[in-house]
Amino acid sequence: MNEGGVLEILNLTNPIFKGYIFYSALLVLKVLAMAVLTATQRFKRKAFANPEDAEPRKLKPKIDENVERVRRAHLNDLENIPIFFVAGFGYMLTNPAVGTALMLFRVFTIARFVHTLVYAVVVVPQPSRALAWATGYFITGFMAVKTLMHFL
Amino acid sequence: MNEGGVLEILNLTNPIFKGYIFYSALLVLKVLAMAVLTATQRFKRKAFANPEDAEPRKLKPKIDENVERVRRAHLNDLENIPIFFVAGFGYMLTNPAVGTALMLFRVFTIARFVHTLVYAVVVVPQPSRALAWATGYFITGFMAVKTLMHFL
Amino acid sequence: MNEGGVLEILNLTNPIFKGYIFYSALLVLKVLAMAVLTATQRFKRKAFANPEDAEPRKLKPKIDENVERVRRAHLNDLENIPIFFVAGFGYMLTNPAVGTALMLFRVFTIARFVHTLVYAVVVVPQPSRALAWATGYFITGFMAVKTLMHFL
Questions:
Q1: pLDDT tens-digit profile of B13-68?
Q2: Whole-angstrom distance, CA of residue B87 vs CA of residue B137
Q3: What is the CATH number for B93?
Q4: A vs B: CB pairs below 8 A
């Protein structure tokens, strides 16, 4: 009747699917927050990238290390979060255990928040940033490998 | 029979789903267009990033502000468009009104086209770029918050 | 019974859907590999972006062309791969022929691996990188245009 269908997976009563949508929306807001962080630093340091932003303030475009740090954190999000969305979607289709799947989504989300916190809000000595990054990295990698094995 | 299923949402007769797919495809083409814009500027300004591109033209790799401007617009797309795809998908599952959902997809898409136009095609004084950016930003944020509330 | 539903498309017995998930997972791993490539170059060239990474090694943050090359290849992935995921999803809903769809997914994936190989692993003279890039670019473009036409 629903042979091979994904009705039971992409289902609003399936806690894994609900968790996936919930943490994805949270991660979207986290990425959006990076723009506020960047703008805050640009105004604070008076460091704008474009003449049309700098000149009305009688400034010249300049590069500031504090702005660049936030931009690197933002870029790190772009390198890691969109592929998590895709790996997480494939992983859901491999029939993972509910507890495991929700834990992976949750830990990934926390790790990305921590990454930005120790990278671009309060600079904490290594290996804090490396650990936060690696946590997210290996979760995405695990989900992608499990998906690959399942659909081979 | 389809308890909690998303059959009525991910449905080719559902105008919201059709709109989501349509505007997403349009945004994909918009992002693809950025590569043409960058290449045009690189050739026009003879500013290439790699020795293997510059040397056959008897040039050295160099940085040009007009190229960098297009690259910033492209990066701004990468910061905003993939998370829109995810926020829009979650938002569809919250049973929004058809008119509202289609309007948000449409306005987001227009705002992103305008953003590139005033940033990297014809440089228009601020706040035109800020307004175009903010329009897309708040639409994505609204959709993500609505999704979060719905799946809490 | 399943009027307009996508049950037959998003179906674990549909080879196109299975291929889409499989190649997407492979591309996720490919993007993850870029971080290893970057880290390898950073350690080899002793070129770190942050003081907290450089100072414990008694170095200053510096920019190295070999690191930047890998970072450009990584950024090129971010410019091309997330939009492929979206274009490929829309394209699946247009009822493509199985053979065509699978071939497009496969060729895109190979092209992106080749792109990184000739850009950032072994630098091969142009037009090898341009061809690898264009192959992926036109596949994504084709899929997006087909989706647009179908949902117009």
A1: 899 999 999 999 999 999 999 999 999 999 999 999 999 999 999 999 999 999 99
A2: 11
A3: 1.20.120.550
A4: 81
3-state SS, residue A11: strand
The partner residue sitting opposite B32, judged by closest CB among C72, C83, C126, is: C83
Cα gap C119→C26, rounded to integer Å: 19
Burial code (b: 16+ CB inside 10 Å, e: under 16) for B110-130 equals ebbbbbbbbbbeeeeeeebbe
Q: How large is the ipTM?
A: 0.94
Contact assessment for residue C118 and residue C136, using Cβ atoms and an 8 Å cutoff: no
Helices (H), A12-64: 15-45, 51-54
**Domain count for chain B:** 1
| C89 inside domain | yes
- Domain around A75: 15-150
Residue B30 lies in a domain: yes
Q: Where are the alpha helices (DSSP H) in chain A?
A: 15-45, 51-54, 65-92, 98-116, 128-150
Cα B23 to Cα B136: distance, rounded to the nearest angstrom = 13
Q: Does B11 touch chain C (CB under 8 A)?
A: yes
